[in-house]
Amino acid sequence: xxxxxxxxxxxxxxxxxxxxxxxxxxxxxxxxxxxxxxxxxxxxxxxxxxxxxxxxxxxxxxxxxxxxxxxxxxxxxxxxxxxxxxxxxxxxxxxxxxxxxxxxxxxxxxxxxxxxxxxxxxxxxxxxxxxxxxxxxxxxxxxxxxxxxxxxxxxxxxxxxxxxxxxxxxxxxxxxxxxxxxxxxxxxxxxxxxxxxxxxxxxxxxxxxxxxxxxxxxxxxxxxxxxxxxxxxxxxxxxxxxxx
Length: 244
Known about the structure:
This protein is 59% helix and 11% strand. The chain is an alpha+beta fold. The chain folds into two domains: 2-57; 64-243, Glutaredoxin. It has a six-stranded mixed beta sheet with strand order 1-6-5-3-4-2. Helix 4 packs parallel to helix 7 (168-177) and helix 4 (131-142) crosses helix 9 (192-207). The chain is elongated and about 115 Å long. The protein starts with a helix and ends with a helix.
């Protein structure tokens, strides 16, 4: 301020003008910076939202895989003539599969007229020692027309049998509970035909590069697994709607 006192009035006015210009430039730069930041955040949010939708619902352009056509001895629910097909590769001892069980069951009930739901076995033998026998138990029940009853029983009681050293007697008890001919069930459980059916499903998963459960094949594409019923329902609704 001491130096300013020695300036003439004209010089002081010029100094004030320069200070105002500097302040004006600073404010203008701040406004531009803020606008750039707002747009950057907006672009980030939109991009993140789009990515999130595709991640949660599964990209429509997902990885196409060949897992074989739906066969007569596949375990299916729904309309076999429908244009929407959901193939689930699952493991009865898998906790994540058990978590998806009520979701898929509800979807099959809701969209049974307009979609086909296929269950295929992919027992993770190295980490789930009882999964293969559970798969064979369900296929043995299928030979008496009660695959889905055994399927439900296995998932709903997973915590009981999954840690048993040998759950065969438990599975025989389930067979009795759902009204099967127990002797026939025991015979089928030990049969090569049932073992081969589970192996066929397993090998089709390996050939398709599947390495985790549950894995869902939606109209021929391996999708990012939806996390909730609502997300799965949206995916199905989009497919069913396009068929109408």
